[in-house]
Amino acid sequence: MYSMDEGMSDLYNLNDDPRQLNDLIGAVKDTGGDLHGMLVEFMKQTNVAEGLPAPKLELSL
Fold first, then answer.
1. pLDDT tens digits for 12-57?
2. Which residues contact 2 (CB under 8 A, 6 or more apart)?
3. How far is CA 23 from CA 42, 47, 58, 61, in A?
4. Residue 30: enclosing H or E segment and its boundaries?
5. Is the dihedral of CA 46, 34, 19, 8 positive or negative?
6. Separation of alpha carbons 8 and 50, rounded Å
7. Can you give the residue ranges of every domain in the chain?
8. Rounded to two decimals, what is the model's pTM?
9. Which of 49, 45, 33 is nearest to 1 (CA)?
10. Which SS3 state, helix, strand or coil, does residue 2 take?
11. Which of 4, 12, 41, 60 has the most other CB atoms within 10 Å of its CB?
12. What are residue 9's DSSP bridge partners?
């Protein structure tokens, strides 16, 4: 789900799309937003390098 682009994340169903060709994040905005929030919280709790969570604080769909 993580992308280095500011505010951008991807979401794939790896069971149905193992080659990650169909980004679902826009199609399932609630799920994408929830997972994005969990990712940002995880990055804060695990003290990842400061520059990594900064571009992820807000999700652009």
1. 999 999 999 999 888 887 888 888 788 888 888 888 777 666 655 6
2. 9, 39, 56
3. 22, 28, 18, 11
4. helix 29-45
5. negative
6. 17
7. 1-61
8. 0.59
9. 33
10. strand
11. 12
12. 2
